[in-house]
From TrEMBL:
It comes from the Bacteria. SUPFAM superfamilies: P-loop containing nucleoside triphosphate hydrolases. This is ABC transporter ATP-binding protein. GO terms for molecular function: ATP binding. InterPro entries: AAA+_ATPase, ABC_Ni/Peptide_Import, ABC_transporter-like_ATP-bd, ABC_transporter-like_CS, Oligopep_ABC_C, P-loop_NTPase. SMART domains: AAA. Belongs to the ABC transporter superfamily. Residues 2-253 form the ABC transporter domain.
Amino acid sequence: MLEISNLSVDFHTDGGVVHAVKDVSITVGEGEIRGLVGESGSGKSVTSMTILGLLGTRRARVSSGEILLNGTNLLEMSQKELGRIRGRQIGLVSQNALSALDPSFTIGSQMIEVIRLHQKLSRAAAYEEAVRSLERVGMPDPPQKLRAYQHQLSGGQRQRVVIAMALVARPALLLADEPTTALDATVQKQILDLLLEINRDLGTAILMVTHDFGVVSHMCDSVTVMRKGSVVEQGSADQVLTAPEHPYTRSLISSVPKLRLDDTARAVPRAERRLHVFQEA
Ligand SMILES: Nc1ncnc2c1ncn2[C@@H]1O[C@H](COP(=O)(O)OP(=O)(O)OP(=O)(O)O)[C@@H](O)[C@H]1O
Ligand SMILES: [Mg+2]
């Protein structure tokens, strides 16, 4: 479904050219969950932002490659055409939930606006849809949350809102950039399990950006490891977790506490299998 090939992205700064992404090739198949892993500054966010044309600075330049979505090159699209892809075919859950929400509007008015952007619905019908989409992401008391402002929600609840909004138009692919980094461990697992549920129930493919191999072990089918802008290793999650080839991958895996994932992961058979393999490794 998504096919990134030989992508290179440079930033032309006052201090010179920064080669942030170098000759990167990554695919995400229908319904697949692919982890994109690497230390801070390895080029994960730049890669995922490039997919949606959201680099947000004139200093950024794609110097090579293509990004095909169902065969169409996103890099050749105008901002207007990309705008139609965003949300509709590819949903985005960004690194920081706070920046995705507007503090001066209620959750309800923001959700209703996004819903009406994608579907011709009356305000009342859009409100009902907002309630349903918050229910879908496991939010307690949706009507009350819709009346609230973002500061009245917990971090985990905010991230549920952002995920619900990203799913409004039922995109086939979700780009999730460190969706749980700012959350404590328990809430982190709840959000990861929610994404797994969405993948299972709606068939949504996910490109899961993370620095954490624990996340890969918990939920990913496949994984791409980046370091300093380049891909150093990729393959099925089982294969990379049990027999990492690159020393950098090995060091990332060995830094994850082996028994960190608790037994709620076992609700998901696939994750259970991984967890088992991971503990033995
Ligand atoms: N607007 C920019 N101008 C110049 N350099 C940039 C810009 N944005 C990113 N970079 C550089 O590109 C490289 C990759 O950054 P990126 O944000 O993709 O890292 P990351 O892997 O997402 O890291 P993190 O885990 O910290 O989010 C870094 O060296 C960064 O300094
Ligand atoms: Mg990042």
